Amino acid sequence: MDAGNGGSARVQDGATGSRDLFRGAIDNLVAPYIAELKTEGFGFDSQAWQRVFGATDAQREYLESAVAALEDVNKHAVLQN
Q1: Domain ranges of the chain
Q2: Among residues 68, 62, 64, 52, which one has the least CA distance to residue 19?
Q3: pTM for this structure?
Q4: Do 30 and 64 meet the contact criterion of CB atoms below 8 Å apart?
Q5: Sign of the four-CA dihedral 11, 22, 20, 58
Q6: Are residues 67 and 34 in contact, defined by beta-carbon separation less than 8 angstroms?
Q7: What is the DSSP track for 33-59?
Q8: How far apart are CA 72 and CA 20, in angstroms?
């Protein structure tokens, strides 16, 4: 196995892993927490979140869509609180 190719594969896998870690954190921790806060009457400003954490526009949009999906499920009483 060529060491150059192995190193390149690791860099690519690391980038994918980082993206998967972000999406996993949003899907399993951040979005459910925000959705629950919103059901309790608290607000959440995704643009402020983006500024504070230095997130990209794509990351902010991903967060907004994940929260919206959970809110839509809650509106239709599919999830019990």
Answers
A1: 3-75
A2: 62
A3: 0.69
A4: no
A5: negative
A6: yes
A7: HHHHHHHTT----HHHHHHHHT--HHH
A8: 24
Distance CA(68)–CA(74), nearest Å, equals 10
Query: What are the phi and psi torsion angles at 23 (to 5°)?
Result: -65, -40
Hey, what are 71's tokens? 């809110």
Rounded distance, CA 30 to CA 67, Å? 9
- What is the tens place of the pLDDT at every residue in 4-22? 455 444 344 445 677 899 9
Q: What is the spatial distance between Cα 41 and Cα 30, in angstroms, rounded to a whole number?
A: 17
DSSP 13: H
